[in-house]
Amino acid sequence: MALAYSKVPSGTTVIPSPFQVHVSDEQIEELQLLVKLSKLAPPTYEGLQQDRKYGITNEWLANAKEAWKSLDWRSAESRINSFPQFTFDIEGLTIHFVALFSERKDAIPIVLLHGWPGKLTFLEFLPALDSIRAKYSPETLPYHIVIPSLPGFTFSSGPPLDANFTGVDTARVINKVMLNLGFEDGYVAQGGDIGSRIGRILAVDHESCKAVHLNACYMGKPSNVPDTAITEEDKRALARAQWFGTYGSGYALEHGTRPSTIGNVLSTNPVALLAWIGEKFLDWADEAIHLETILESVSLYDDSTSAYNLVIVLTLTQNVPPPKLRQAEDPRWYIRKPFGFSYYPKELVPTPRAWVETTGNLVFWQAHEKRSVDKYGLEEIEMVPRLPWIVYSMLGRLHQANSDMRIRH
């Protein structure tokens, strides 16, 4: 029996292949064996610091390893498979995506672009999709929601071996996903973290992307923005960004300069992968994330054999060595289409409104008092289930401000 919300739109030009997650018993047993046999590092002064000033603690990793042995993966798999999933073959890649399709003819297509680690792709959105399913039926859902796993993440193929696969290439592939689904007349993109970079490229390079909403804009201070435009809240947020750049971004240098080395480490030892990813889940959220959630995410990461591919993909976004202009600073990537932005003062690298305004046709700005939602669905705040509502609200304002813009399917 077909899942609700799985009926593809009537304008679909290429029928996607249905997909369900199934990790074999052999893979599960292998992971459990590797976890059991993996040795823990001996206690050190650095590893005993409970504030995690020097990284993951010996105690947390030992407890997490023990809990991993009894993780019920089949339960997690069943929950994931309660959502419609599909794949497309595009440019020699298999692209996995989760979708909630509407049966309304006026439904607005939205593509949601994940970040990193972000529960490692589509998982970060599932709590929001649960809220949407509770509120709408397929007959009343006002939008088509498409959540692709970016190339190299989980069940999407890794980048080709004979070419440098860039963010421009990723955006082109994601645009083809939307065109295959019949959304050539228009769709809206939403992105955070890595997804914000892909979303910006979609808005600039692809006609069918009619509007974009971002919650990250990595850049330095524009020369034409006076200091008086920066609020006291902005100053506090920028101090946080400076701290992160000094003390929290070492992983990015490793990804950007020695991807093969760290990729091999993370692909061959699940406990090493748990330490590397677990640290980010613990440090990048203001409230504790359930250990089971972290273990499910890392298990999916390991079982889908994407650890190495993902590090390679991340090298494309780390700007090592730093370019003369970051993406948002480059006139090539100025967004001329309607552009919305959500600001979180506790984002890792928050960007003041006065700076963001220099990067595109900013028509919607929403400042949030609560913490970052870079990892949608992980952080249990009211904002998370309403993420698509923000995009929809933005689109409504755009219709009022620009009556000749029409998104239809």
What is the topology?
Blueprint: E1 17-18, H1 25-37, H2 58-68, H3 73-80, E2 85-90, E3 93-100, E4 108-113, H4 126-135, E5 143-148, H5 167-180, E6 187-191, H6 194-205, E7 209-214, H7 232-247, H8 250-257, H9 259-268, H10 270-283, H11 291-303, H12 307-314, E8 335-343, H13 353-356, E9 360-367, H14 387-401
Parallel strand pairs: 4-5, 4-6, 6-7, 7-8, 8-9
Antiparallel strand pairs: 1-2, 2-3, 3-5
Helix pairs in contact: 5-6, 8-9, 9-10, 9-12, 10-11
Protein described:
- This protein is α/β, with parallel strands linked by helices and 409 residues long.
- It has a single domain, classed as Rossmann fold.
- It contains 14 helices and nine strands.
- It has helices at residues 25-37, 58-68, 73-80, 126-135, 167-180, 194-205, 232-247, 250-257, 259-268, 270-283, 291-303, 307-314, 353-356, 387-401, and strands spanning 17-18, 85-90, 93-100, 108-113, 143-148, 187-191, 209-214, 335-343, 360-367.
- The protein has a nine-stranded mixed sheet, sandwiched between helices.
- Strand 6 (187-191), helix 6 (194-205) and strand 7 (209-214) form a beta-alpha-beta unit.
- The longest helix has 16 residues, at 232-247.
- The chain is globular and about 55 Å long.
- It starts with 16 loop residues before the first strand and ends in an 8-residue tail after the last helix.
- This is Epoxide hydrolase.
- Pfam families: EHN.
- InterPro entries: AB_hydrolase_fold, Epoxide_hydro_N.
- Keywords: Hydrolase.
- Belongs to the peptidase S33 family.
